[in-house]
Amino acid sequence: MPPDPRHAVADLGEYIREQRRLAELSVRKLADLAGVSNPYLSQIERGLKRPSAEILQQIARALEVSAESLYVRAGILDEEPEADLIAAIRAQDDLTHDQKQVLIQVYESFLAQNEM
User: Which residues of the chain have pLDDT under 70?
Assistant: First the structure.
């Protein structure tokens, strides 16, 4: 049975809140650093909103944690290495869709060769 997406969002919010407190940042300060509104960040922390991968990347950068850790907690990224790499390629904003597809195809062809 797949995990409940509502649980993933709540877990993500709790994790972000925990990391924010460890960094000794207020909600307002983290929101400013991440480039999001204070109410929106508060809603994320309370599990009411599910942020996009781009917003998660901004929050991760502001908290100085890996974006991948937030992606896993948000249910965007599986903890399996293969899925991690493919999701990381897809999350790259500086690549075109075609470039992402080529990278994924190359990666999958290497995997297929190694299975032979």
Answer: 1-9, 78-84, 115-116
